[in-house]
Design a protein that fits this description.
- With 131 residues, the chain is of the alpha/beta class.
- It is 26% helix and 24% strand.
- Helix 1 (14-32) runs antiparallel to helix 2.
- The radius of gyration is 15 Å and the shape is elongated.
- The chain starts with a strand and ends in a 12-residue tail after the last strand.
- The mean pLDDT is 95.
Length: 131
């Protein structure tokens, strides 16, 4: 049940925006082994002056910041796979590999309210977290 926020510094076409969302989602499917219909992703576009990035970036308009809120339990190896897969998947959209920042915030299941207001710790999630 990751909740993902993708923040970008330029306006893309609808097709590219959907492609970027799908690139991140498919990486989550591969690395975190989430279900394909587990889609909680948002893409927010900022004007460049509202979204500062490191000044050494060759193509600052492509800087992409991804924040993933998820349950505690994934291994470091799984996270490494996620980071690599996201960067690989964004490259075809012109996003340089060193222009992607990914932050994972791990939250315990009792701090996620889902499925009609239940604590995630109180229900069978239907998938493994410890991958």
């Amino acid at each position: 049940m990751p909740s993902v926020l993708i923040e970008v510094r330029q306006k893309y076409t609808l097709e590219v925006e959907l492609g970027i969302i799908e690139a991140v989602h498919s990486a989550l499917i591969e690395a975190f082994r989430i279900m394909p219909n587990d889609r909680h992703l948002r893409l927010v576009t900022y004007e460049a002056h509202h979204f500062q990035c490191p000044p050494d970036k060759e193509k600052p308009e492509f800087f992409t910041h991804i924040t993933i809120d998820c349950f505690v339990g994934r291994s470091l190896e799984t996270k490494r796979l996620l980071y690599k897969t996201i960067v690989d998947n964004l490259e075809p959209f012109g996003v340089p590999r060193d222009h992607v920042m990914i932050i994972i915030r791990e939250i315990s299941t009792d701090n996620f309210g889902i499925r009609g207001g239940q604590a995630a710790s109180d229900i069978d999630l239907g998938f493994k977290i410890d991958v």
